[in-house]
Every structure is written in structure tokens, then in C-alpha cells.
Amino acid sequence: MVALLIIPLISTNLEHNMENKNTNARASFTCSEYNYNLNSNFVVDAAFIVNDDECVALIFQGSVGNEILDINIIGNSSNAIDALIMDSGVYYSYLNEQEYHINPLSGSYLIEKNPSIENLTEDIEFTWSIPSNEDYMLVLDNMRHPADKGRGADGGNSVSISVSVNLNNETWAWTPHNSIIQLETLETETINDEALYFDEGDIITIESRPLFGTGEVGLTYLGNNEQLIWIGDVLSIAGSNNQLDSTITSEFADVPLWLTINNQGNSKMATTIKMSVNPVLNPIIQITSHNSTEIQLEDTIQLDASLTPNKWNQIENFNWDIEDIGLIDSTTANAKWESPGEYSVSLEILRSDGEVATTSISISVVDLIEPNVKISGINNNAFIEQNSDLTLNCDCSDNHQIDSIEWFWDSNANPNQGSSFILPTTDLGLYNLMIKVTDVSGNIVQTSLSITIIDATAPELISVVWPEDNIVQNTELDFKIKATDPEDSNLIFRWDIDLSTDSNNDGNKRNDWIIGAFDTTTNEAKMSYTYSTPGVYTVMVQVLNSENRKLELTHSVAVSQAPPPETSSMVYVVGGVGLLGLLGAVGTLAWRSIQQRIDRIEAEGKNLTPEEQAELKQQQLSQELYGNDQNDLANVANVGNPEQQWSRPQAQQINYHDIAGIPANNPQSIQTQNNNNIGNNMLEALMEEPEIKDEKPKEIDDDLSFLKEMKKENKNEKVEAQKSSSGLKIEIPGIKKENDSTKKNKGGLKIELPPLPQNLTQNKNELNVDDFDL
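Now predict its structure.
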């Protein structure tokens, strides 16, 4: 510290007087300089005697640009002095007698306008905030400068002055302004270079320590015409220290505001203005994931504290305390609970000055989700067979817990509550099955199924009647069926009379139904139908119950062509008589030929060889076998060449229809007015062609035994002919076939007439003689 003792001179006029001073220009000059480092130990406490035309410079080094200096200058009331603060660049201009007050081009101040006090004669105390990290000088100027342009003290006397400078120990972090300000006459100035923004609830304190002059200070906003408008009360600057406290309302929260000072006097005004902010502590919990404090179980709620007022970065820490979850140190937090209920969520904020504020909300976790219900083992509108065993299961689930499962069968509660249900299938009909599931939160869900218990059996057949055989076209046929169903009396009987055709042209050959007529007295259904065309038809009959279960039968019906008009039985009689006459003539001629041959052989028998004698013996035996009666056709011997051996006669059948000239494939029935129907008893004549066999000549004894056997068979045939009523059988052995080239084939002629109808033999006395001669 430098202390200078001076003898003060009392001046009556502090204005400069150019006439009494030497204003010779200087190229440059120097000041007495004292260097101070702005560290934690920074302090200035000095007294100086500044002689006329001299200066003292206190140089503040090592600034970081945010230091606040409390400056106290004790002036001399008799002699004025200038206390100028400038940066190193302006200080260089000052020492070289260059412009250092105001830039002549821009009109802006070169020295630090607000903390620089000219014509200082009083004690002043103010606070100055260093604006940048440059070196700054506090110059005590007792000189006259051409560049002053008539401003400030002009020297002329020695001035004693004391200076005290300290770092401002203000710990309040939210002080946007704490510095001296000077205004010219009627000048208005916004102190802050950038707009100020506040939160609702911030408390603003404005303090004034006037140096000289009068005015007012407060917060303003820009109106529509770019005019500054006070937002509320203002602080008057006059005489003594003053203070104004105000709270930011919602109207001006987050609105750009300006700290504005106004010089209301007719002279310069200087004052220290300090504005401090007490930022509001108002923790705000915002739910970003939901619209309310009620959330669904299993939902994750997202909590956010970023809306908490913090314009001044006053909050140092956000701390969440969530019930059943724990502490979370973050601006945001997520929470999810496993059970419904009320849960507390607290948010605590810590301001950097140690102040704490807490807020809490209650989160209601509700279970609004219905249980999931699914019935397995059956579908809706299912058809279930009667008396079947079926157990249904409820595949039910819930996001929390199921409380109860109830089953209702046709609105009747089932006592067996639980996840399974045995379906009643005893009674037929349509039923409604409902299941109701309730969870522990009271959420109820129910679903219903329609179930039909149906008859499990098809109708049972009692009897069926199909048309008999020998069906002729254009004949009405009756189809009958009788069936029963113990569980269903509404049976349908229907026939499809030809499965090979699609009579209704619907593409299906098996549904051309004809509904039968049901007789309630016999419980039998009947359907009549006439086939107009011959053929074989497949007929299907179905018996259906109400559940569409069916009894199905098929049957083939053969329909023949209707016969042509019938021919009289006399045609057959006349044909038969003619045939018999022809056969008799043939037999007579054959007999005569045999007798002549035998006589010739007997006449020549004495000269016969042994082979011829053996053949002659055979002929004799044959004659003995058949007899000598020429009219008995049964005794006609075999006719053939002498060299042919006798063999067993073979029968050749002649069809009577061929002899009579009647086609075999068109049999005709004969009817008479006397009911003498012999159409089915007409004569059948068959010619049988024996099988040709090449055999070695048999021994005589074998041939004789064979002839004896033939004779025995002939006798048996005669007996059988006598037993048959009115039957006629004629057999002529040994007839040679003319087309036989081997001459070894021996045949026979066999004629069989069927027995006459019994009604003819019984009523023969009533018949005409001609009808019975045959």
C-alpha cells in the first residue's frame, strides 16, 4: 500500500477551467503503475497523492472474465480527480495522448463507461464485474489531456486519494447483474445484453446504491411497438440504498425480460445496481406414458421431472423414491408393478445452495383387462351325439390371477366349478353353454356356445318289399318299406328309381327323390312306379330322421320287354301231329330196311367169315332186344352199314319249336275261352348230337352185354313214361347222320313231349275230342 500525504485545497467549482491551464500537447507520458494479480488473495488497500499532471495506474492481471470487484474510493472534496477503468488497449492509447474516451467513428465508449468516474470529489463505493479475461487498469488521472474534449478533471492541484479493491465474496449464484452504471441526462438503458428468462415463482430482488443523480430501475418487456414496458413495480434511485422484491407470475414466465434503468434527472446519474434471483424450487412430476395417474397392470409408467422449473440451472440433483421399486437418481424414471394397488411416487430436488423440495403423487395400478377365455374340445354350433362322453376344458388365463370359473348349462349353474366341465348328453335338443371367468380384480368375461345333442343312430329297418321277378315294362310296381327310430318319429321315406340317370338335372344322379306315402295304420311307406322301357334299374330307398341320419338300401329291378300278341294253342297241336306223322313214316322205312338186311345176312350166313358171323350175332341180339313188332318204335334196330359195330344208342333231341316253325326266342302262350291254357305245356322236341369217339372194336361179349343193358334201360324208360301223366317219349336209335363222313358215328332220334296240364286231364270229358287226340 502506498500512502501519500497531501494538503487538500478546498475548491468551490469542480468544473474544468481551460483558461487557467497549460494545454501544451505531449507526445506521450507514463503513469505510476502498480500490478495486482486477481487470485484468491487479491486485495488492494492504498492511499496516493497524485500531483498535478500525473497519474497512477493500478493494473489488475490474471482475470478469467467473471470476477466481481468491490471498489471503494475515498475522494478529496476540494480537488477533483478522474478514476478511469480501461483495458490494456485503451490504456496504450491513453498513454500516447490518443482518443481514449469515445470512439469518434462509432460514438461508443473506449474506456469502461460505467465504472469510470470523472470529477470525483466524494467517497464512492461500487461493484464492478470484469467483462472479459483481459488485463484492466484503474487509472487515477490528475492531468489535462487534449483528447479529453473538455471532459473530467483538469488537474492543477495535487490530490490525495485512497483506494480499496477486493474480490466480491457474494456466494449467491443467481445474480445476473451486480455492477455500477452511469447514465447521461434523461438516458434510458437496458442493463443486460441478452434477454432474461424466468420461471413462474422466481423471486427477483433489485438493489440500488446511488452515487449521484436520480432515476428508476426494473424489469421490462418489449411491447408491440418495440417499446419497453414495465412488468410491475419499479425501484426508485435517489439518495440512499433501496431494494425491490418481486415474484414472476405465469404471465411473464418464460418471456424475454430486460433489466432497464432510466435517468430521470437533469444531470448524470451513477448507481450500483444488483439484481439477484431466488429460483423457485418446484418439483414437477410428469407422466409421459399415460394421461392420468391410473395405469393398467403390467403397463410401464414413464415419469419425467424435466418440467421442473430450472431456468437458472439451480437444481443439482433429481431423486425418485418409487414404492416397491426403490430409489432412482435421474431426471426420468420408469416403473412397473406386478399387482394392482396404490403406489406412492416421490420426487426430491436438491438446489445447488442445499435447498431441498419434494413432491409426491399416487399411482393407481388397476387391472382392467378381462381374462382370456378359450373352451377346448368343442366348437360353437357343434352337434354332439347322444350319450357320448365329452369333457370340456377352459384354457383360461389372466394378466394377474383368476378368481373363479363358472359353467352354466342352459342358464343353470353347474355345481362343478373349475377349469373342466363334463357335457350332459343324455337329452336331445339345442342347448346353450355359458362360461363366466372372474379375476381377482373383479373383471368378468363370459362366452357362450350353442350345442345340439343329436340322435346318434340311424333309423332301423323292419321290412322292405321289392317288386317280384319277371317284371314287364309298363307294369305298375309297388315299393314298400317299414322302418322305425326310437328317438325320432319324423321319418322321411324317399326313393330314387334309377341311379344311372339324373332326372332333375342337378348334376347328382343319387337325389332324384320320390317321396313315399306313409300309412299311419301300418307304419309303412309305399311308392308306386311304372317303368316304360325295358332294362335293369338300380333303385335306392332312404329313410331319414331329423338328424339327417339315414337308412339306405339299394335293389336291382330287371324289366323285360312286353310279349307280342299271343298265338292259339291249336297251332302247337297241329304242328305236333304233323311231326308225329313224319316220325312214324321215317320209323317204318327204317324198320323195313333192317328186316331186309337181316334176311340177306341169314341167307348168306353159311359162307360168312368169323367177323361177319359175329356181326350177325349182334344183329340177332338186337332184334331179340327190340322185338319183332314193326309198329313199336321203341324196338327199331340200328340202321347202318354191315361194317359198323353196334354201340349204345345216343339221343339226338329235336326242339319242337324248330319243327313247328315257331321262333325259339319268342315263346307264345296259348289261351282258350275254356281256360285250356297249354302255353306252358307245349311239346318240346330235342335232337341230341352224340359225341364222336374213336374206339377200338369191342369184343362180342361186351357188345352183347351192352345191348342187354340198353334193353334194361329201355324197360325203365317205359316204366317212367307210364308214370308221367299224359307224357310221350319216342326214341329211335341208330339213325345215321347223312353228313357224317367217318361213317363211324351212330346217332339216334329222341322225341319228348311234355305231360299235358293237369287241368286238361282232369277235365278231359269236357274237352273236344280233337283237342285230346294228341
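The longest helix spans residues 569-603.
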